[in-house]
Design goal:
243 residues; mainly alpha; two-stranded parallel ribbon; two-stranded antiparallel ribbon; 7% strand
Length: 243
């Protein structure tokens, strides 16, 4: 852990004893972000070093993420806490060219002729499993859901669901070479029942969509779930896009 992180939240190691002020700050942060406490240090690392990599190396000092007009309404906060957070949080505007860069080189479109299997742990606190919900929406919008199979493990955190890796790869190989599309029911017995039928909730319950400079709202995919489209926009379910 870095000194700034310790100063803010206290010692996050087992047995650490944060001050009363640090404990209150950490509690508010975790409830506002809905992040797992065990991933707090990891998430803060990527929120600083990872974002710096994008902003300084990829988008040349321009910010692809903004929070102007975003209502932070975590269900784990009281109404008074939500009001205080929204009143006090710094607001930053996204740069249109940086938004377009990220849309072009990162945003999944689901437009592929390949067969795709994803494996995600439901307790992943770094890449939230709700990302799979938005990934599925991209395939729905592209009319390619027949090319996507999403598998989930109950535990494993970030990339530690080792028991599922080989069975998932074998299932993908069989799908490509023999046309046998896999499912949780067909793959799970091959890994000691390491998979679960449980799926993550809607993306919008963790990360509410927002308007971004340089990116029309209609480019956002959706499935008419809470928070799927920015405020003032609605989901056209037939097309799986916001309008």
């Amino acid at each position: 852990m870095t000194p700034p992180l310790i100063a803010c939240f206290g010692d996050l190691n087992p047995g650490g004893a944060p001050s009363a002020e640090q404990a209150v700050r950490k509690d508010l942060f975790l409830r506002a972000t809905q992040l797992r406490e065990s991933f707090l240090a990891t998430d803060m690392f990527f929120a600083t070093i990872g974002m710096a990599e994008v902003v300084h190396r990829r988008t040349h000092g321009h910010h692809p993420w903004g929070n102007i007009g975003v209502d932070y309404a975590s269900p784990r906060l009281t109404p008074a806490e939500q009001t205080a957070l929204n009143a006090g949080i710094p607001r930053v505007a996204a740069d249109a060219d940086a938004v377009r860069y990220m849309r072009r080189f990162y945003e999944p479109r689901g437009r592929t002729r390949s067969k795709v299997i994803t494996v995600h742990a439901l307790d992943d606190g770094l890449v939230l499993p709700e990302n799979e919900d938005k990934y599925r929406e991209a395939f729905e919008a592209a009319g390619a859901t027949d090319r996507l199979v999403q598998l989930f493990t109950q535990t494993g955190g970030h990339c530690l669901f080792l028991a599922a890796w080989t069975p998932a790869l074998r299932a993908l190989t069989a799908w490509v070479e023999e046309g046998r599309k896999p499912s949780t029911a067909s793959v799970s017995p091959t890994c000691g029942n390491c998979l679960t039928d449980q799926t993550p909730g809607p993306w919008g319950l963790k990360v509410v969509e927002r308007r971004a400079k340089g990116a029309p709202v209609r480019t956002l995919v959706c499935s008419a779930e809470p928070g799927d489209c920015p405020a003032g926009a609605t989901c056209v379910e037939a097309q799986h896009h916001c309008r």
